[in-house]
Design brief:
839 residues, alpha/beta, eight-stranded mixed beta sheet, 48% helix, globular
């Protein structure tokens, strides 16, 4: 605190922002900030005899908390709520690059009235000609648009992606949905029209030209990657390629970050030195060029951080005052947070600063621990290991996965990208602008290296054995992780150094006279206890979901489809019933509407949710039938999460997607089980499943898997008993199947005559099922309908809803309440829903 006061007060400022984000009482605001600032000024006159640093830090945190709370409270819309879902005409200015993907054009715009409020504009393009028109729009254009104003969608599953919050952090509160361009007009700005958007418009043009040149120099399968690395444009990056990089923890190579700034500066300084420039000249030149590089590469939080740090460091070197990187890092952090407090919630900002601070503080300790003689190799290993340790908790918090190959992949591959591909690619790009032939030749060399590296990454990413899935940790867990990691490192270094010197270990924290013998720890004790606690914390974080002790049934909101996750109370098995799916209705000749990375419910929603909840293996994947709204998302599940057994209805729907699903299951070693009426599954002593439908083949008929295009009438129907509660899951069975089930089971062992606690209503509440006779027999206490919001089929049908109300069942609907979770404990069911509106 005395030697580095700036570090202390910067950390207090950041902590104050965090407190303002977590706790926002009504009284927190500018008044608190002004009061705290006045008290800080008072302390400049009166210096307390002790604890002054703590008091000042507390006041700084209070000032920061008030600033954040006031800033966040001011982030409100001025558009009347009555405008929601109304068709209106708006005149706006486009303030972001226009993204055209398939049949959709999207951008952010500011109203030319209503205090310039920002809107997220999504335009559905109806003709190929409209797509060509939209491709010509640019930042700064003025548009007159007629569309419907809506609130952005909020998270519909617990822990799911909250698009409304995401846009709010960009100060956007409304979406404008526009259909077609027939009634729309978009014009470029007038010659005398200018604003802050004008230099960004020019910058977009430069970036677009550079991207076009990359497309000319590199093949399609590499161009997206090179544009991401060199220009910060990731729109054309192959989703599968990005996924492989993500699995190995290599996405920082693609995303412009501090690594790119360091390489850019190193190349720039090397060139200027070769031209004989003086130290003062090349330092000032580098400072002047850095803002342009930040803009050209997209100005993401990580690149802004690196650019600011580089400029401060270069100026400090110019003034011969380059002493402390920690000061520079935190000065850049506070400057960015003063400019935009919402950076605090940005994952790239968090990772960028945490890793940078971790490297500054941790690499010296790691160097002292590593038994490597060659300094260059020791530095490389030390930097890689430290970066992995520091980024680990943030990575699993946001992405819920970690590859055990990440350390080796970063250690081996990052130097190749940083020392060869990025400098070579940059040189090829610049040469290609002035001397196309030379640029093409150099690009050819980079293409060859890229090819082998991509093959290596694909091979490494395919080793599922090394992929680990982590449940989302709590903030307290993350704090304890960094604390115990620090204590372990300090203890290990002191213990190792004493061992090397052959000294007798002496007390380090307190003398024997000052503290009881129990606390008279030596470095070996500190190291061992810290490491033991650190290991226990990792074990707890990895296995925590298995210790909850109660059964849980989660009806996930996957839109117009079904997906239900069941976790058993004793064995903690995970059963997944169906996986939702995205339906496509493309016609011949509409290929231009296809998007580069279309929304797929399994990859975008289901797999992230399962990983976030710590599902490391699915014991039973129950596929009620093979329609796409039930199995479409399971392809991604099989590719990303180990599945022990797949239970299906003994049929095969002859489509490419279903055949690929079964092929993937077999390739992954998943056991296929054909179920029929009468089969039983005992997950544990409190959880038993009995299949009621479909019925087996008649005597003499073949039991081979049969081809069946229409799957609803063959849906798996099963009764689950969990902790003295009874549940019936029905797939998409129709009224005819209901009648067959009643005829077969209603008189046998009271299977259907006992009261039912929960009925999963068949076929999303379609009128073709859930008959009066069915409900009269089951008498369910609760009923759950899984249906999409404003779906095209009108599910659930009003008649079915009326029948359920007449039967006395409490009705839960995912289209109205989002995810529905039911926890079973001691024979009772506790219900919670993601959205309001539970009965």
């Amino acid at each position: 605190m005395k030697q580095r006061p700036l570090v202390w007060y910067a950390l207090c400022w950041i902590a104050g922002y965090a407190l303002g984000y977590v706790f926002q009482p009504a009284w927190l605001g500018w008044e608190v900030s002004l009061t705290g600032a006045a008290l800080i000024c008072g302390l400049a006159v009166w210096n307390p005899p002790f604890g002054g640093w703590l008091l000042r830090g507390t006041l700084v945190a209070a000032v920061a908390a008030g600033v954040y709370a006031a800033y966040d409270r001011s982030n409100q819309s001025v558009i009347p709520e009555a405008w929601e879902e109304s068709e209106r005409q708006f005149k706006v200015r486009i303030v972001s690059p226009v993204q055209v993907d398939g049949d959709r054009a999207s951008f952010q715009a500011k109203l030319l009235d209503k205090e310039g409020e920002s809107l997220q504009v999504n335009i559905r393009l109806l003709k190929l000609e409209e797509k060509e028109i939209a491709l010509g729009w640019k930042r700064g254009d003025v548009a007159e648009l007629a569309g419907t104003l809506r609130k952005p969608g909020e998270a519909r599953n617990f822990g799911g992606f909250d698009y409304r919050r995401y846009l709010r952090l960009q100060k956007v509160h409304w979406q404008l949905t526009v259909k077609g361009l027939a009634a729309q007009q978009v014009l470029p700005p007038a010659a005398d029209d200018w604003g802050w958007w004008l230099p960004l418009r020019w910058n977009d043009a430069v970036r677009s030209k550079l991207a076009d040149k990359v497309d000319q120099l590199f093949p399609e399968e590499q161009a997206g990657f090179m544009k991401g690395m060199l220009v910060g444009l990731t729109d054309d990056l192959d989703p599968q390629q990005f996924e492989r990089f993500s699995k190995l923890g290599l996405t920082h190579i693609i995303a412009i970050s501090g690594l790119n700034v360091a390489i850019f500066l190193a190349c720039l300084l090397w060139i200027m030195r070769r031209f004989g420039m003086t130290k003062e000249t090349y330092l000032l030149t580098s400072i002047a060029l850095m803002p342009f590089y930040v803009l050209i590469t997209g100005a993401s939080p990580s690149i802004v951080r690196a650019g600011l740090m580089a400029m401060v460091a270069l100026y400090a070197a110019y003034r011969n005052r380059l002493k402390d990187g920690l000061h520079i890092t935190l000065l850049a952090a506070v400057a960015m947070l003063l400019w935009e407090p919402y950076y605090l919630m940005d994952v790239s900002f968090q990772l960028s600063f945490l890793v940078t601070i971790g490297l500054i503080l941790g690499v010296p300790y790691m160097n002292r621990l590593l038994p490597i003689q060659k300094s260059s190799l020791k530095d490389a290993v030390s930097i890689t290991v430290t970066a992995q340790l520091i980024s680990f908790p943030i990575s699993i918090y946001y992405f819920s996965q970690f590859s055990l190959l990440s350390l080796a992949a970063n250690l081996v591959l990052v130097p190749v990208f940083s020392m060869l591909i990025m400098p070579g690619g940059t040189a090829a790009l610049l040469l290609g602008l002035v001397w196309p032939a030379a640029g093409k030749l150099l690009a050819w060399l980079i293409i060859q290296v890229n090819h082998y590296l991509f093959v290596a990454i694909e091979w490494l990413a395919g080793w599922d054995l090394f992929q680990t899935i982590w449940p989302k940790p709590s903030p307290l867990w993350i704090v304890l992780y960094y604390l115990l990691l620090t204590l372990s490192a300090i203890g290990a270094v002191e213990w190792l150094e004493q061992t090397r010197e052959g000294e007798t270990p002496q007390p380090k924290l307190q003398t024997a006279k000052e503290m009881p013998a129990f606390f008279n720890w030596r470095p070996v004790h500190l190291c061992m206890i810290s490491f033991l606690c650190f290991s226990s914390l990792l074990f707890y974080g990895y296995g925590y979901p298995r210790w909850t002790g109660s059964g849980l049934v989660q009806f996930l909101d996957v839109g117009q489809g079904d997906s239900i996750m069941i976790q058993t109370p004793v064995s903690r098995m995970t059963l997944l019933v169906d996986g939702g799916g995205t339906l496509s209705f493309r016609k011949a000749g509409e290929e231009w509407k296809e998007r580069k990375d279309p929304y797929e419910v399994g990859r975008k929603l289901l797999v992230p949710l399962l990983k976030q909840r710590g599902v490391q293996r699915i014991d039973y994947l129950i596929m009620t039938h093979q329609d796409m709204d039930h199995v479409g998302g399971l392809q991604a599940v099989l590719e990303h999460i180990p599945v022990s057994r797949l239970v299906f209805n003994g049929t095969l729907k002859p489509t490419d997607a279903v055949e690929k699903l079964f092929e993937t299951a077999l390739a992954k070693g998943t056991q296929l089980i054909s179920a029929q009426a009468g089969d039983r599954l005992e997950a544990d002593e409190l959880t038993k499943l009995m299949f009621l439908h479909p019925f087996g083949t008649e005597a003499g008929e073949s039991e081979a898997i049969r081809i069946e295009k229409e799957q609803n009438e063959s849906s798996l129907v099963f009764l689950m008993e969990m902790g003295r509660t009874r549940w019936l899951f029905t797939g998409d069975m129709d009224a005819a199947a209901e009648k067959q089930v009643l005829e077969r089971w209603s008189g046998i062992s009271s299977i259907l005559t006992e009261n039912l606690d929960v009925l999963k209503v068949a076929h999303h509440g379609s009128k073709s099922s859930t008959s009066d006779e069915w409900l009269k027999m089951l008498q369910p206490r609760n009923a759950v309908i899984s249906a999409g919001v404003n779906n095209l089929y009108g599910h659930p049908n009003p008649l079915v809803v009326e029948r359920l109300a007449t039967s006395g069942a409490s009705l839960f609907r995912t289209d109205q309440q989002g995810e529905i979770q039911m926890r079973v404990s001691e024979g009772k069911i506790e219900v919670r829903t993601k959205l309001a509106g539970a009965p």
